Amino acid sequence: MNNILFVNACIRKEGQSRTLKIARKFIEEYKKLNPDDSLTELKLCDLDLRCITGDMFEQREQLLQEGNLNHECFNLAKQFANADKIIIAAPFWELSFPAVLRVYIEHISVVGITYEYEDNKLIGMCKAKKLLYITTRGGEYSHGFTNELEMGERFIKAICLMYGIENVITICAEGLDMVENNADEIVNNAIEKAVEISKTF
Ligand SMILES: Cc1cc2nc3c(=O)[nH]c(=O)nc-3n(C[C@H](O)[C@H](O)[C@H](O)COP(=O)(O)O)c2cc1C
Predict the structure, then answer these.
(1) Which CATH number fits domain 3-198: 3.30.830.10, 3.30.70.1030, 3.40.50.360, 1.10.3130.10?
(2) Which ligand 1 atom sits nearest the alpha carbon of residue 18?
(3) What is the pLDDT of residues 56-80, one digit of tens each?
(4) Report field, pTM of the whole predicted structure over 0.90
């Protein structure tokens, strides 16, 4: 039995977010194929996470210096580190993803929980070997010169390297806000890909 963590960083609501539509279909198929796995969904918009500043920063630094990782402020990091497989769904915003996901990453990046240093080398501490990143983009960034501007998938892949998560799979539907494109068709193609990936994830 695997313990799956679904990090839902979609801002638009159910039925409105195209990213979430793809993620829901993936999860539906995955559950059919793996009925014994347990899935925990974290709706980042409901967590009311604050970026780490002021007193929160001071307290966190103090705890880390003392090597005290029992405080509840490290619970999200522990949950992430202990998941067997992780799914993140986030729309493409400002060339990456919504700030709520960046703040979440700030909270889960904890030395001694999700990563550590050994002889000045970064060592990932997360149990998950696979992470699925689901995103949708208004424009097209997977090819051409705009590819260099794409910081969402790139960031997720980099942070996963730091956490020790070797395999990052991306499902992306892009060009959805370009008038010449048929957005429904592009989303449906991404859903088909999600169904395929659910068989091996
Ligand atoms: C605040 C905001 C910022 C966005 N930034 C970008 C961007 O930088 N590049 C882009 O191609 N699309 C951008 N978009 C368009 C979204 O990526 C696109 O509409 C996406 O499909 C939204 O996903 P959703 O339906 O799950 O909300 C932005 C949309 C919003 C609302």
Answers:
(1) 3.40.50.360
(2) 25
(3) 999 999 999 999 999 999 999 999 9
(4) yes
